[in-house]
Design brief:
Layout (H helix, E strand, L loop, with lengths): L3 E6 L12 H11 L4 E5 L6 H6 L7 E4 L2 E4 L1 H9 L10 H30 L8 H15 L12 H10 L2 H4 L5 H11 L2 H16 L2
Parallel strand pairs: 1-2
Antiparallel strand pairs: 1-3, 3-4
């Protein structure tokens, strides 16, 4: 049995399926060839044991033997450091990967998630729209000039950035051909397809 355990919910409604963030960890493990197991915590009744592992009652969290981590970005960095498939070991390549991984969380997702929340709640005015447009415009300029974000190859930074950009409402926001080509290319990878299919099957089985 693998020491790596990806923890997710036992069930979620249909809407978030395919986007629950344990998919990021599954995908990273598939890309890196790391054996892992998936275990669950209740979606509806989040008790003290869950909060002991994830203080906000969210998923995913990761177990690696006696080591435990929460937050998908931290978990991805831990997995990336297990080899070189997701992050190069030379100082320049590692620094580039780290900066773009943080950018996905801090410069893109920090705006896109609250924007999306206001959109699905039907806000009459979404005051974050201009901010999102600016951030996505900057990403479009970057992706128009390069195939990968760091080290001239696929890294965990691409995994996380593509996952942030593939959210349906974000993906359909404006005309951004370079971004769309990037997201399509990254999510066409066999590791993503397997991780996505496995998550969808996992939640469907619990219906």
């Amino acid at each position: 049995m693998s020491d790596l355990i990806v923890w997710t919910y036992d069930w979620v409604p249909e809407g978030p399926r395919g986007f629950v963030r344990d998919l990021r960890l599954r995908w990273a493990c598939e890309e890196a060839g790391l054996a892992y197991a998936v275990r669950t915590v209740p979606f509806k009744d989040r008790g003290p044991e869950h909060f002991a592992h994830q203080p906000f009652g969210q998923v995913p969290f990761l177990s690696d033997g006696d080591l435990e981590l929460f937050e998908s970005g931290a978990c991805l960095l831990h997995l990336a450091r297990k080899g070189e498939k997701l992050m190069p070991r030379d100082p320049a390549g590692e620094a580039q990967t780290l900066q773009w991984l943080v950018a996905a969380l801090n410069s893109v997702e920090m705006v896109s998630v609250p924007w999306w929340f206001l959109e699905v709640r039907g806000a009459e005015q979404n005051h974050l729209t201009g901010w999102l447009e600016s951030r996505l415009g900057h990403m479009e300029n970057v992706l128009a000039e390069r195939e990968w974000l760091a080290a001239d190859r696929f890294t965990v930074a691409d995994l996380l950035m593509a996952d942030a950009l593939r959210i349906t409402r974000v993906r359909s926001f404006g005309e951004r051909p370079a971004t769309e080509a990037y997201v399509t290319r990254i999510t066409d990878r066999p590791a993503f397809k397997k991780a996505h299919a496995d998550q969808m099957a996992h939640f469907a089985k619990a219906d």
